[in-house]
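Researcher: I've been going back and forth with a colleague about how Carbonic anhydrase might be arranged in three dimensions. Neither of us has a model we trust, so I'd like an independent prediction. The organism is Trichoderma simmonsii, in case that matters for your notes. Sequence below.
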Amino acid sequence: MAPPTWTELLERNSVYAETKHKPHIYLGQPGFEIPSVMIFTCIDFRASAEAFLGMKGDEAFVVRNPGGRITTGIQSLLFVDTLTGGQALKDIVIIHHFDCGCTHITDDVIKDALKAKSPELGAEIDKMAFGTYSAKTMQQHINNIETDIKFLKDSPLVREELKERVRAYIFDLQSGKLVAVPHNN
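Model: Here is an independent structure prediction for Carbonic anhydrase. You can compare it with whatever you and your colleague have in mind.
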C-alpha cells in the first residue's frame, strides 16, 4: 500500500479535529506541565520513538532530524531550556538506529547534488552539515553516538546538570529493542 498523500493526511485532520481532539492548555496556564525528557532521534519513519517507547504526545520532547544527531539539533535543546528557565529538562536521550539513511549517503554527496541544482549558492551549501556518518558495525554506531555526546558535553551553552544526565541508545529495527550505549557521564 502506498503512503498517503498530503491531501489524504489533511482529510484525516478533519476527522481528528471532529472526533478525537481535546484542547490543550496554553503555556503558563494552571495545569500546564512541561516534559522533563528530550529525545533526539531520526526522521526515519521506521524508528518512531513515540511508537517504540509507547509514548503519548505530551510525555517527552521528541526532536527529529536526519540521524538523530545532537550536532544538528542542539538549537531545540537550547530553545526549550531557555523557554523554561532551565527548570523543565532533566534528561537528554540520544537514539540512533540501524540501517539509518545517514549511513547510506555522505554530506559531500548531498552538497554536490545541491550545488548542481544551485551553483550560485555553493559557498552557503559548503557550510551546511547534514549529520551523515559511516556505520556498518555496532562499534561504528557507538563511535558516532560518542561524537554526539562529546559535542553536547563540550558546549558551553548546555547546563552542566543536563550534561550529566545524557543517555544514549541504538534502536534495533529488527527486534524493536533499544540497546544501551555505555558512556562516562
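Researcher: What would you highlight for our discussion?
Model: I'd start with this: The CA atoms of residues 59 and 174 lie 25 Å apart. After that, consider the following. The chain is about 35% helix and 15% strand.
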